[in-house]
Amino acid sequence: MKYGIAIFPSKRVQDFANSYRKRYDSHYALIPPHITLKSAFEADEQQIDQIVQELQRIAAETAVIPLTITKFSSFYPSNTVIYLKVEPNETLTALHQKLYSGIFTDQPEFAFVPHITIGRDLSDGEYFDVYGQLKMQTVHFSETADRFHLLYQLEDGAWTVYETFRLGKENA
Amino acid sequence: MKYGIAIFPSKRVQDFANSYRKRYDSHYALIPPHITLKSAFEADEQQIDQIVQELQRIAAETAVIPLTITKFSSFYPSNTVIYLKVEPNETLTALHQKLYSGIFTDQPEFAFVPHITIGRDLSDGEYFDVYGQLKMQTVHFSETADRFHLLYQLEDGAWTVYETFRLGKENA
């Protein structure tokens, strides 16, 4: 089964992101707006039990995470993904690193650029049109994430939450 | 903010349900296949903290839940919803009751018929056509739910998971 790990920002930020995703993101219906901490990886039932325990341990030792969203940005010319930029910070980066070390033997495909995707699979023409407008727009959200989620992927590509991990809490 | 409480069945059952929901359920993109335990209710941030605590308490005292899915059924003629019937059992019914008592002062709109919706908003013609085929089909899934989820609704109608509650575990 394929799993992934993500943070959902506040409803306010999700509503803002979805107002664009609806039009520009082909994954709009598959998952709510999110910051990917660990992209899709394979695990069987036995492995996932061990991973859940490890995530509880990691969550317990991780402080709540400041999320500051400052602008629209993009991965162009690598691809035409447009995203809301989440300012990197030590806590977020350290958490990302922990999800790619220890029992997690896979390596990240890209350097960690925390972001919330709002557009993808755009043609070059669409991309320039949409991004040209968005990059002029002022964006500022500042909030705190106090949890992350382990999700699994269904056959149609949609993601279901398997478990929530609260940061720095007695729950671990 | 609007919240709801639901169980997600196994990936196997979700994949099966989605193969129909894709075509027949207008809510397909809004939430994964689920059994509603408590339908949409309003709560503010302060209330939700209290509700989360109560849900932890309820989850801790609730055993894992047998989910036996036996056939397609429908709410016709009340409406044209088609669903996978989940056999009622004491644990499931008791959990449902707890989510409508104590600090939860709202009352259920309908008698509790545990189900996984796979079609809705069908015209009468579509309904008879689809349900006529499905009701002949043999369905049997038997599994155990060990958790439920508290979700909140975004402005576009989609649901995001807020927190997971494991049944009968030390996590409460």
Please write out the topology.
2 copies of one chain form a homodimer.
Chain A: E1 2-7, H1 11-24, E2 35-42, H2 45-60, E3 65-74, E4 82-86, H3 90-98, E5 115-119, H4 124-134, E6 141-145, E7 147-153, E8 159-166
Antiparallel strand pairs in A: 1-2, 1-7, 3-4, 3-6, 4-5, 7-8
Enzyme class (chains A, B): hydrolase
InterPro entries (chains A, B): 2H_phosphoesterase_YjcG-like, Cyclic_Pdiesterase, YjcG
EC number (chains A, B): 3.1.-.-
Describe it for me?
2 copies of one chain form a homodimer. The first copy, chain A, is of the alpha+beta class. Chain A has a single domain (2-163), classed as Cyclic phosphodiesterase (Cyclic Phosphodiesterase, Chain: A, Alpha-Beta Complex). Chain A has 4 helices and 8 strands, in the order βαβαββαβαβββ. A 4-stranded antiparallel beta sheet of chain A has the order 2-1-7-8. In chain A, strand 7 (147-153) and strand 8 (159-166) form a beta hairpin. The longest helix of chain A has 16 residues, at 45-60.
